């Protein structure tokens, strides 16, 4: 194999020049500097995001402002994020104490932009479901089917784990 020392792309034998960069390829991969997480002096909880859209927006705003941040799923949220793709506990967003005031100013109004499900939304959902009393919730419901498949997969995995234990 051959590698480009400039962009790091890998090429099959016989190719001598990187088609992207125009530099001669080398026989060893280029040394890559390990990705470094931002160091936060005295991390401060800035925001608990209630959904992925709010978390992504907050991270983008902070990145554009040049403010390093870290996120953490509290409790068993990290496990839930791996299994289900989201955490029901929200995601905590941290910044350094020295950047906290600037970060709060940059994110002003973000919490109000996309609030979690409130009482009005719950009441509207209840009224909407009450207006369809004869409708079978399992009929033509992709979410319900997906949940059944997920439960079946979990049960199968648990059964295999028990069999493997002996």
Write the layout of secondary structure elements.
Layout lengths: L1 E2 L6 E2 L31 E7 L2 H13 L4 E4 L4 H8 L6 E6 L3 H7 L3 H4 L5 H12 L11 H24 L1
Antiparallel strand pairs: 1-2, 3-5, 4-5
* Structural class estimated from helices and strands: alpha+beta
CATH architecture heading of the domain at 43-113: 2-Layer Sandwich
Portion in helices: 40-55%
Number of strands: 5
Write the element-wise H/E pattern from the N-terminal end onward: EEEHEHEHHHH
Radius of gyration: 24 Å
Major sheet strand order: 3-5-4
User: Which oligomerization state do the chains in this entry correspond to?
Assistant: single chain
Task: Describe, in plain words, how this protein is organized in 3D.
By secondary structure, this protein is α+β, with helices and mostly antiparallel strands. The strands form two sheets. A three-stranded antiparallel β-sheet has the order 3-5-4, with helices on one face. It is flat. Strand 1 and strand 2 form a beta hairpin. About 4% of the residues have low confidence. Among the domains are: 32 residues, no CATH class; 71 residues, Hypothetical protein rpa1041 (Alpha-Beta Plaits, 2-Layer Sandwich), CATH 3.30.70. It is built from six helices and five strands, in the order βββαβαβαααα. The longest helix has 24 residues.
């Amino acid at each position: 194999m051959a590698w480009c020392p400039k962009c790091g792309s890998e090429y099959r034998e016989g190719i001598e020049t990187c088609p992207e960069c125009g530099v001669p390829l080398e026989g060893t991969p280029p040394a890559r500097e390990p990705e470094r997480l931002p160091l936060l002096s005295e991390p401060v909880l800035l925001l608990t995001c209630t959904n992925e859209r709010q978390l992504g927006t907050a991270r983008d705003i902070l990145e554009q402002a040049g403010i390093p941040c870290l996120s953490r799923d509290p409790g068993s949220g990290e496990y839930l994020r791996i299994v289900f793709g989201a955490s029901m506990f929200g995601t905590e967003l941290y910044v350094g104490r020295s950047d906290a005031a600037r970060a709060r100013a940059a994110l002003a109004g973000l919490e109000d932009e996309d609030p979690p499900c409130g009482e009005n939304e719950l009441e509207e959902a209840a009224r909407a479901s009450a207006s369809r009393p004869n409708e079978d919730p399992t009929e033509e419901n992709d979410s319900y089917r997906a949940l059944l498949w997920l439960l079946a997969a979990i049960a199968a995995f648990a059964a295999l784990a028990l069999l493997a234990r002996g």
